[in-house]
Amino acid sequence: MQNVPATRQQLITELLTQGVQVINPQQEHVSRHGGAGPSDHQAMNIDGVTVMVPIYTHSAHRSPWQVKHEASGTTRLYNLSIPVKEISIAHKPRFYDRQTADGIPATLHGTDVLATTVLQTCIRYENRAKACQFCAIGQSLAAGSTIARKTPQQLAEVAKAAVELDSVKHMVMTTGTPSGSDRGARILVESAAAIKAAVDLPLQGQCEPPGDAVWFQRMKDAGIDALGMHLEAVTPAVRARIMPGKAQVSVEQYLIAFADAVAVFGRGQVSTYILAGLGDTPGAILSLSETLIDLGVYPFVVPFVPISGTPLEHHAAPDSTFMTSILQPLGQMLNAANLRSSDIKAGCGRCGACSSLSSFEQATA
Ligand code: SF4
């Protein structure tokens, strides 16, 4: 029999890496199949922490963890049929019912984050031999569940509704990479300006490093409060294998862009997403994280979750021992540097639901 983890951060790490089988899904709960960002997940609240738990992945179907909705109205987490604890699951947000003419251009991540992919096409994805192998950006477009380009007006409309109806606290705008040298910064600027004119909502923009550093100031001036530029993997050989197109932008080029971005957005308001479990060693991730923290960049390390329909759908997720060997020392490093997720104004690092990093941060504070 599997032992139930003793600490909150260990439990969350197990759920994120192994996934959960939902025995009797309920219609009023919101889950997500396909698309960019955390796909194949359901937002669950475990001991007061929102976690995006994989439920549609291959490993979730084999997971020892189960969730059951009981007749009493309670939702309970089980491990190998042994009750572990009561949890709660995010309900469908009210703004989903208020669609724009073209459908819903954004989704709720966790419980208080609005997230959207502004441009659902990507130069890296057009040539499948060069595409990032973990990415599902084309799936929701192919399925007709989203549109290729969300206009600034649509985004402003949904952001206002999400704040008014569901008390959303911050917003993430990501984008596929267009062919221009701005690498997506231009459409983030246009979108941010329209959103900020409609509603006072902290915004994170996510794009590749723009060709000209002047875009950092333009994004800030348009109302983007925090910026994510995502390395995904840290070792050159792993990057070349997993993301042959995007790996053409080297880690060194990212480091230059990070320094330029921190000069504009401030220490701790620039972050990067690192997917652990794709081949980078814990030592490689921690070593680069140290460099990033010195620059004032928050390294948001998340366990890789294999998404259905991508080339990596059968790739194993990392186990919780592997994740703990990274997140525990990383939490200590972040505390020592006074670089905390709770100080980030908007975005994935502030939300934290795709990783147990912030729980490790709190546990080692
Ligand atoms: S961490 Fe980022 S991608 Fe994950 S749920 Fe939160 S906002 Fe979405």
UniProtKB/TrEMBL annotation:
InterPro entries hit by this protein: Aldolase_TIM (IPR013785), Elp3/MiaA/NifB-like_rSAM (IPR006638), F420 (IPR034405), rSAM (IPR007197), rSAM_MSMEG0568 (IPR016779), rSAM_sf (IPR058240)
This protein's record includes keyword Zinc: no
Keywords: 4Fe-4S, Iron, Iron-sulfur, Metal-binding, S-adenosyl-L-methionine
PROSITE patterns (UniProt xref): RADICAL_SAM
Molecular function per GO: 4 iron, 4 sulfur cluster binding; 7,8-didemethyl-8-hydroxy-5-deazariboflavin synthase activity; metal ion binding
Cofactor list: [4Fe-4S] cluster
Pfam families on file: Radical_SAM
Gene3D superfamilies registered for this protein in UniProt: Aldolase class I
Domain Radical SAM core: 106-343
Keyword Iron-sulfur set for record: yes
Matches recorded under NCBIfam families: rSAM_MSMEG_0568, variant_rSAM
Protein name: MSMEG_0568 family radical SAM protein
Lineage, uppermost ranks: Bacteria, Pseudomonadati, Pseudomonadota, Gammaproteobacteria, Enterobacterales
